[in-house]
């Protein structure tokens, strides 16, 4: 449900929905086109043609994703030439270009090295004051580092939810406590 609308309803316009909900997955899905065109593709599909506005959105999105300095002089380069971490940051920039209200991340840093993970996490810390971010992760340390609230699921069932610090320090559910203790001992 999103604002009272079942997003699985056949009447929901998926393209309009994606202007409100951005997504970043475990594996970067890069279009075989330039860095610039990867970011502007959806914007152009939604009717934005003004080059000055597109340029500003590209710059802003790449800055928010922590990638601007690395690619600002390579915007016409094929995006498939980017490193894995840069590709993931580009996907984040592409999602942010539409200014989504909600950003969904599914194991978005699990394939990245620690330096790249830190870059993405820093971007998320900056964004969380203006965008609702839902991060799905099995990385407990990451959840503890960057989330304000945590929801613990097991086998599709909600087990516990609360402020991250409280949940990690004083879990109310024995199932949560067992999971956290088991993973922290590894």
Brief digest:
The chain is of the alpha/beta class.
Overview of the structural elements:
The structure is a single chain. This protein has helices spanning 14-20, 35-45, 51-64, 68-71, 84-97, 114-127, 140-146, 164-169, 174-185; strands at 21-24, 102-106, 132-136, 149-154, 157-163. With 186 residues, it is an alpha/beta fold. It folds into two domains: 14-138, P-loop containing nucleotide triphosphate hydrolases (Rossmann fold), CATH 3.40.50; 148-186, no CATH class. The strands form two sheets. A three-stranded parallel sheet has the order 1-2-3. Strand 2, helix 6 and strand 3 (132-136) form a beta-alpha-beta unit. Helix 5 runs parallel beside helix 6. The mean pLDDT is 91.
Name the CATH superfamily classification of the largest domain: P-loop containing nucleotide triphosphate hydrolases
What's the main sheet like? 3 strands, parallel
Q: Under the CATH scheme, which class of the largest domain?
A: Alpha Beta
Number of spatially distinct domains: 2
> Averaged pLDDT, please?
91
What value does the Rg take, in angstroms? 18 Å
Form type: globular
Q: Strands across the major sheet, in which order?
A: 1-2-3
Low-confidence stretches: none
The CA-CA distance between the termini, in Å, is 37 Å
